[in-house]
Amino acid sequence: MLKYFKQIGIVLMIMLIAILINATSTYAIQPASDQRYEGIDVSNWQGYIDYSQVAADGIQIVYIKASQGTNYKDPYFDINYENAKANGLKVGFYHYLTATSTEGAVQEAQFFASVISGKVPDCKLVLDYETFGGVGREGINEIARTFLENVRRLTNKPVIVYSDLFNAQDTFNASIADNYELWLAYYGNYESLYDVQTQWNQWIGLQYTDMGIISGIEGYTDRNIFTQEILIGETSEIPNVDNPTGNEYNTRTLTYTVQPGNTLGEIAQRYGTTYQELAKINGIANPNLIFPGQVLKIITNTNMPGQETREAGSIIYTVQRGNTLSQIAQVYGTTVQEIATTNRISNVNLIFPGEQLKITNSTRQPAREINQAVYIVKSGDTLSGIARRFGVTVNDLVTRNGINNPDLIFPGQRLFV
Fold first, then answer.
1. What does the alpha-carbon distance between residue 192 and residue 369 come to, in Å, rounded to a whole number?
2. For burial by CB atoms within 10 Å, which of 127, 218, 302, 314 has the most?
């Protein structure tokens, strides 16, 4: 009899352990399913991309930045879409949200929908909401909900949330998690996610590095794993939605018909780009050989507005309030002395807001250091957010990177983490 009770006790204990394991796993964040797709996400920072090489490198899905705020359309959006589709990749679109009110979220949702009108996504649309402009947690979730609901209504497409681990745990609420799936940015040990608690218990996308090397793309790009749940079951065209501002996008793709006597260098200079970029975009093997009547695609304003433009093979950077020459040099992978020499600056400690500095392409090399991880700052990043992502302190980042003002970092800047 005693042996019988012992056996019953063992069975009950096993059942209790199983229940506890299952209860725990509901709080762990895991992939939604086993079928995986290799993916990347891109924007104007990658420049022109050869998608035939990307596809040959095993990439199956590409998420393309479409827009930001209420008037920024990524200048490479159209060409990224056309070329990715032409090479058999599945595509998705994302919008970087900057709204600080629900009214702003409504307008940004309509702007995003207007940019992607007429396109046919294969993957769910994405809200990228990372910086909050001093808005509290309740306001953040209301703004996110407003944007997500409006995008879904305007496009008739499912929408998901892109978030880093910190915001997935402490910022977005259960209502957002219950109604919208997650694309998680997490650069730590993948296996450790099984012990992590967030508002979501599964992800359908995992961005695991921003230092991926892919054939056909110059420099680093974000690498991702996606599950089959990222895909839209039945693909169809996004309905036509009017631009809510009625203004032209501050970035656009133009066409230019070559005239007798034109050279590619002359056309590039006229439109603030380079002949190399025009050759890539238009598939021109010999930049010295163009013909009258030939129609060229020209992408204007290939960087975030107000800071830099291209001119005859160089970068022209407009100094912002609070900039130092050392910060600018670090962003572009060059030295203070090279910028000072090129621009005839006698006092390297004296530059002025609005001053334009020429930075030659020969000096714009990636700033890298052996055995140190490098993070490339994205639009909307803060030093505290980057510190949280990599498990370091703001002071660590300031010290390692010689940063004078922790509140002043720039898209494209490379930080040793």
1. 27
2. 127
